[in-house]
Design goal:
Isopropylmalate Dehydrogenase, binds 1,4-dihydronicotinamide adenine dinucleotide, 10-stranded mixed sheet, 351 residues, alpha/beta, 12 helices, 3-isopropylmalate dehydrogenase, 3-isopropylmalate dehydrogenase activity, binds magnesium ion
Length: 351
């Protein structure tokens, strides 16, 4: 089969890590006899430099003409003095909205050979940790009415309608069906009206998924439970802002920001990116960990292209390299072998 892939390296370490994912995609092409037509597009700071806007029209067009999108990261000190709509990060928020990417999937996995990288005690991690956070991405307080009143009062409105909650709840239950069939819906329904709607709709949707065990948790408790008993979770379903915070917390439990992929999915399109930023402090030095971006490509094969075997092949290759004790600097310890970005990529490609 033939597929179109849009690749947006963005800024900082973006170019290096995305190049790693492209090499892996080309290996899959060769091994499984597919054809991937890869097109590059600008987003973020580089787009500001080249086109005067963080999200050029031609980038949107190219994304809309693709079967899968890979993104590196955006932003950096060079653009830090810019405001609001002119900032690199706006490119990212706007492409999510533009493509209707209302579901954000963020797995947080503690890989067996990296167990001691977690800041949590081994007995809390137990047999290992494998959580998937399903976060609503295009609604809620980040997209609500906002402003500053005459008296200086600043406000941001948090609202959800039934349809918005329903479609993300369906994604949550579908995700749970493919995993451990357990879903924790996180809200703040003891205080917020929008959360009461959230909980009511989630319960309604749950009737279509009788096999999935559903429980509800207030967000403050969920933040605590992630630290004291994280292995109780399989899928966590939550709204935009709570998901932003909890997914960062969950990713840090794994101890390695350079390892974790993410998927942002809508009805038609899928965008895949590492959870970390552009890491300007290490850009251009061949030390960035490319694994998060490579695993994002694996998610693309699974979720946007219907190629689960190809996705799993990538995950297996990453596990093999980790089991062989190969490490980039961020996950390196005394007893492992330190390699640079490019060598890590070559070893994953080889495996
Ligand atoms: P960051 O995630 O870029 O870096 C945090 C720390 O983790 C740094 O010490 C960095 O060197 C390290 N790190 C990140 N990715 C790594 C990798 N693959 N391998 C090894 N080490 C890695 O977050 P920071 O420093 O807060 O932000 C830097 C820039 O990135 C800012 O402009 C920020 O706005 C932007 N950003 C962009 C995101 C995106 O494009 N999705 C997400 C988060 C931040
Ligand atoms: Mg965040």
């Amino acid at each position: 089969m033939e597929y179109r892939v849009t690749v947006m390296p963005g800024d900082g370490i973006g170019r290096e890590i995305v190049e790693g994912a492209v090499k892996v995609i080309k290996k899959i092409e060769e091994k499984y006899n597919h054809k991937f037509n890869i097109n590059y597009a600008d987003i973020g700071g580089i787009a500001i430099d080249n086109h005067g806007t963080p999200l050029p029209e031609e980038t949107i067009e190219m994304c809309k003409n693709s079967d899968g999108i890979i993104l590196g990261a955006v932003g950096g000190p060079k653009w830090d003095s810019l405001k609001g709509e002119d900032r690199p990060e706006r490119g990212l928020l706007n492409i999510r909205k533009e493509l209707g990417l209302y579901t954000n999937l963020r797995p947080a996995i503690v890989y067996e050979p990296l167990k001691n990288a977690s800041p949590l005690k081994p007995e809390i991690i137990g047999e290992g940790l494998d959580i998937c956070i399903v976060r609503e991405l295009t609604g809620g307080i980040y997209f609500g009415e906002k402003g500053v009143k005459e008296d200086g009062t600043a406000y941001d409105v948090l609202s959800y309608n039934e349809e918005e909650v329903k479609r993300i709840a369906v994604k949550g239950f579908e995700t749970a069906m493919k995993r451990g069939k357990k879903l924790t819906s996180v809200d703040k329904s003891n205080v917020l009206e929008s959360s009461r709607l959230w909980r009511r709709v989630v319960i309604e949707v749950s009737k279509d998924y009788p096999e999935v065990e559903l429980n509800h948790m207030y967000v403050d408790n969920a933040a605590m439970q992630l630290l004291i008993n994280p292995t109780q979770f399989d899928v966590i379903l939550t709204m935009n802002m709570f998901g932003d915070i909890l997914s960062d917390e969950a990713s840090m439990i794994t101890g390695s920001i350079g390892m974790l992929p993410s998927a942002s999915i809508g009805e038609k399109y899928g965008l895949y990116e590492p959870i970390h930023g552009s890491a300007p402090d290490i850009a251009g030095q061949d030390i960035a960990n490319p694994i998060a971006t490579i695993l994002s490509a694996a998610m693309m094969f699974k979720h946007s292209m219907g190629l689960p075997e190809e996705g799993t092949a990538i995950e297996k290759a990453v596990e093999k390299v980790l089991n062989d004790g190969i490490r980039t600097r961020d996950i390196h310890t005394d007893s492992t072998k330190l390699v640079g970005t490019e060598e890590m990529v070559s070893l994953i490609v080889k495996n």
